[in-house]
Design a protein that fits this description.
mainly beta, 1 helix, single chain, four-stranded antiparallel β-sheet
Length: 354
Amino acid sequence: MKRILCVLLITGALFLLLWGCSKNTSTSPSSSPQWRVVGNAGGFSPGAASYTSLYVYNNTPYVAFVDATANSRATVMDYNGSSWVTNEYLASPTQYTSVFVYGGTPYVTYQDYLNEMVMYNIASNKYTTTNAISSMSSYLSGTNGTSYIAYVSNSTISVITYTGVSWTSIGNAFGQTSLAPSMCVSNGVQYVAYVDSSSNSIYVMTFTGGTWAAVGGSSFGRTQSAPSLSVEGGTPYVAFSDTSSSGYGRAAVEYYSGGWVPYGGADFSEESVNYLSLQLYNQIPYVAFQDNANSSKVTVMTCASAAGQWTTVGSKAFSAGAAQYISLFINNGTPCVAYCDGANYNKATMMYYH
């Protein structure tokens, strides 16, 4: 799935896993924090990849992606401590891949060649499918393992949940969009961010009282690409490429605090950005993006407070080449990112900062 995807934060000692595997990285351990490759520096997928999605469970990173060398088949690989291994090959051709892990079981969602949504339980080899769609975003609740999918069909957004037997709709369809939505669940409440087709403004919808309603009662910002939503403690944050008259496509984050307001001031990247991926850790936002001011490589930035300034995590533009389909995951304060690296034939690559 689009890197429009919203991923759960989980606790664990990811540092121990990755540090213990440092002999397989392109950098050796040192006292200086830096971005380090997990596994092969030249990428770990068989060939060109797209729609990368990163999730870490019990010290094991999982990456789902579309494998161009296998007729665009959905593929899941995990790092076993010394190398990346294929966990599962799924249907082909596919797009919008996303991976989550609950109770030790990986779940993969994707859009298949019939344009249907599919959720696949790797442990039981069980597929579940639903309506034909044009784009989608999925989310797996870490509290009870409930699956949610927000999808676009006929330019409107619908949200469904899997009961263990069948898919059930949550409320009625809403909005008008041509871009993939971004979804999160916080304290049992569902949130969906999307870009309105007519105004290019952003709405964050929440399901309360049996209906979908806009958070704050109105839209905010302007963008022409899919936003990235993250919610913590009931407070939604949205990262987007600001295409307003003063934004020039630069990265921006707004959050809801009695109204939609910029976090850390206005646009903070040097130039325009793509493939934004937002994650929160203790209500501190981290944003990864394709940095068009720096050869379209990956840059990660963070801001400690709403009144603070955005700063770069480690060095900016740290990928070997231009990056696409960026997926950010923050584990116990450690930023990790998966992406497709243009310097290595667009193979899937994972790096972490320590």
